[in-house]
Design brief:
Number of strands: 12
Strand content: 5-15%
Helix content: 40-55%
Largest sheet: 6 strands, mixed
Strand order of the largest sheet: 1-2-4-3-5-6
Number of helices: 19
Oligomer: single chain
């Protein structure tokens, strides 16, 4: 343990990335990729990946560039796509010698097509390798992917950058090669296709190369459009906007007639690319907004794929690449042709009909009561208002011991409940509790929703179902049954640093003070619930999410604090009534 601790403290790099030594990360990554994928092999001890069985009777198709864009490009080596791929150091072009070595190993009599992304280093090193290969007698052609449509206002001779759209070219070339096409046909088809591709990207956080600082900085609540895949800055910084607005803005770059100029009515293929650090949930929402956009703007979406394709290490961002299919009716066939390249996720036939009929749950009906309990209404409103007001504090407490959403969960729940308060049936307290249990079950979600539903249901089961008065004894029994049910199903007990540590002291006050007047009882309850909450600061979490992450003593349990909030809200209303 001491040795492990020493290694962690002596290496800053180990604090934030899963690497061994930064200078060996490319070799290590290639070896891991080949262990996992039996259809490819590492070429000797190089940083090249090739098909397991190379058919030199077909045109070889190769690509490459700096590492850090995985699965590009090694993940796209396979029959029907790339014959081989060459990787340089992170964000650095591979050497001419290494590229030439790959050409020699994969190229037969039908020649080799080199596909490169439009970056100066790649153009120079791949171009030099191509010329040397020609001098050695190999037939070689080069196609450049320059699909970035966000740099149209930039005055540069370098031209647009090569981004995720390069995958369209790789798939078209690989499919043609599998068909036995000549080098000339593969080259001319890809050269034409390169003019039908556009890509636009956006990021909300930078990438971080191995052992180095983040490539750029963005202020909080800021996004940058037009970022490159090597940490290059973009063309527009703005305040973060919704996913829908983000997709709309990306599409404006793709529709610009100075670039791709894709327009309504076009047949298109779309790649939605995760730049490395975007969650699957976010990606699904992006897909939904892209499909909605193309549908509303009358595009004919023939091919759609989404995933981590050409990444930028762990950059939190996305890009959208579009291929205009109307320029060559073979493009779609090439994209849909089979390949065993593991990085290519294929395309989906998009349908707008995504639902099947659902058998609805039987409606829960509560007849409107003839009279409304002003006291219960006031209690519920006070509980909702106080929980909403405390939501930020609860989130902050939860960030110390859990996932930071306790307050948000309560706020979302009470904001949905508040407008429904006047519509509830108030014929009996039991009726109200049953309705609250049904509402919490449907809306609240998570462990909190389940525990509160169990507690409310158990409490309601021990209340009279008529208009008879609710006594302190009835409330005591009802609360006791609720806490036992929560403990039985939630596996927690008093002392485990949960909401129960705030509720059991209240139960004991009720059990010991059955004859007390209301003002005295309220005062005792307020003191007891606060004491229970404060005690959680000295307890080690033994249940809930905090117990999984090894929560330490010293932090109040947010669930217990939430209990104090709503208990005090009820107490305040009752106290004011009995002044």
């Amino acid at each position: 343990r001491i040795q492990i601790l020493f290694e962690l403290l002596s290496s800053d790099m180990m604090n934030y990335q899963f690497f061994n030594e930064p200078e060996k990360c490319v070799h290590n990554g290639i070896q891991g990729h080949c262990y996992l994928n039996s259809n490819v092999k590492q070429l000797g001890d190089t940083t090249c990946i090739v098909q397991k069985e190379i058919d030199k009777s077909k045109v070889a198709v190769i690509c490459g560039g700096g590492s850090g864009h995985e699965p590009a490009h090694g993940g796209f080596v396979g029959k029907g796509m790339l014959t081989g791929a060459v990787a340089g150091n992170v964000f650095a072009s591979p050497s001419t010698a290494l590229i030439l070595q790959l050409i020699r190993n994969v190229t037969g009599d039908k020649g080799c097509l080199i596909i490169i992304k439009n970056y100066t280093g790649d153009r120079l090193n791949f171009g030099m390798a191509a010329e040397k290969a020609k001098r050695e007698g190999f037939q070689v052609e080069v196609v450049v992917a320059a699909d970035d449509t966000t740099l149209l206002d930039t005055d540069t001779v370098a031209g647009p950058r090569g981004l995720c759209g390069v995958l369209f070219l790789q798939k078209i070339a690989g499919s043609l090669s599998e068909e036995g096409a000549s080098l000339d046909e593969v080259f001319r088809t890809c050269e034409a296709a390169s003019k039908c591709i556009g890509t636009a990207g956006v990021a909300i956080s930078p990438c971080q190369p191995p052992g180095k600082e983040p490539s750029f900085t963005l202020p909080p609540d800021t996004m940058e459009f037009g970022v490159g895949i090597h940490g290059e800055p973009g063309v527009l910084k703005c305040k973060s906007v919704s996913c829908k607005t983000t997709v709309d803005k990306l599409w404006s770059y793709l529709s610009d007639k100075r670039g791709l100029g894709v327009q309504s009515g076009d047949d298109i293929a779309v790649l939605i690319n995760n730049l490395g650090g975007t969650s699957e949930l976010e990606m699904s929402i992006v897909v939904k907004e892209v499909v909605k956009y193309v549908s509303e703007h009358d595009f004919h979406l023939k091919f759609l794929s989404s995933g981590s394709l050409v990444t930028s290490l762990g950059m939190h961002g996305i890009s959208i690449s579009v291929l205009r299919l109307d320029k060559d009716d073979r493009y779609l066939k090439f994209l849909q042709a089979p390949t065993d390249a593991v990085g290519w996720q294929g395309g989906r036939n998009v349908t707008m009909d995504i639902r099947v009929p659902a058998i609805p749950n039987p409606p829960k009906t509560y007849p409107r009561s003839a009279t409304k309990s002003d006291l219960l209404v006031e209690m519920l409103r006070a509980v909702c208002n106080d929980l909403e007001a405390a939501s930020n504090e609860l989130d902050e407490l939860d960030r110390l011991v859990g996932d930071g959403d306790c307050g948000t969960t309560f706020r979302n729940t009470v904001m949905r409940l508040s407008p429904l308060i006047p519509t509830l049936n108030y014929d009996s307290v039991r009726n109200v509790m049953e309705q609250l249990a049904d509402f919490v079950e449907e809306i609240m979600g998570g462990s909190s929703g389940a525990l509160y539903t169990i507690g409310l249901t158990a409490a309601a089961n021990n209340l009279p179902d008529d208009c008879s008065p609710v006594t302190i004894a009835t409330i005591t029994k009802s609360l006791s049954e609720a806490l036992q049910a929560i403990s039985r199903y939630g596996k927690a007990k008093e002392g485990d640093c949960t909401m129960l540590d705030a509720l059991y002291p209240v139960l004991r006050v009720l059990q010991l003070n059955q004859e007390a007047d209301m003002k005295t009882l309220i005062g005792l309850i307020d003191v007891a619930v606060n004491a229970g909450v404060q005690k959680t600061g000295s307890l080690k979490p033994r249940a809930g999410r905090a117990s999984y992450i090894g929560g330490d003593k010293g932090h109040l349990d947010p669930g217990a604090v939430a209990v104090e909030v709503w208990v005090r809200a009820i107490s305040r209303v009752l106290y004011n009534k009995h002044l």
